[in-house]
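User: Some background: our group keeps a shared notebook of sequences we're curious about, and every so often someone picks one and asks for a predicted structure to add to the entry. Today it's my turn. The entry only has the sequence so far, pasted here. Could you supply the structure so I can complete it?
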Amino acid sequence: MRLTHLLTTAMLAVLLTGCAGISTAPTPEARQALAPTGKLRVGLQLGSPHNVIADPVTGEMKGVGYDLGKELARRMGVPFEPVMYPSVGALLDGGKAGSWDVAFVGFSLARAKEWDFTALHLQMEFGYLVPSGSAVSTMTDVDRPGIRVAVQEKSQPDVFISRTLKNAVVVRASGLPGTLETLKSGRADAIFSIKPSLFEVSNQLPGSHVLDGRAGVDPHAMVMPKGRDAGLAYAHQFIEDAKSEGRVKAAIERVGMRGAVVAPLE
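Assistant: Of course. Here's the predicted structure to add to the notebook entry:
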């Protein structure tokens, strides 16, 4: 609730300029700010259902970020161009290089200094994945001397776990596939991440399972590079509309994501 309040406060000046009255199509100024190249380039982390995954049978792309980005481009009347990355760190680096226009990432006060965020659209639980036969059976078993926990570097789970674990050792990998390899090779005893990603990874490791309970909640929102103020109000209202119209819920269900809920309306 505190993060939602902070986001609401941060967006107050934007909302007062009249975003509540935005129509389906953006103004020319908003369209230029959101899609300066003439197409909407959406930064997405491949392999994460809250962003995008590829169906293993059909190859179809689906995910909450993918579906919302595609719908935003449709409403704006511009082509949709997904820009894929293997990790959130690579995605953020790509944004700093100007390679995408919007993306969907975890909100934090530190990131808000570098990026402009819209309203929250998802709230996701943090959790742990352990392999078959693991001695770690509950969340209270994790933070003990000798336990090694793999985490995706430069991610919100990395930030969270680095300040909460006192006894276990954090083992960082460049992306979710890297954390899985660390677990498979025996160099880690558990993976810490958002639960939707953990459930996806568990499909690749027979016998593994996500521990019951949650360590915390990771709020996610659409993000834009700084300096595109003319498009920020439209982007904010799009996310609010996507929640109220059931589009976020539908995207969650289409990708079969567990461990996540639609964020409340602001």
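Suggested note for the entry: The longest strand covers residues 115-130. Residues 23 and 230 are 15 Å apart (CA to CA).
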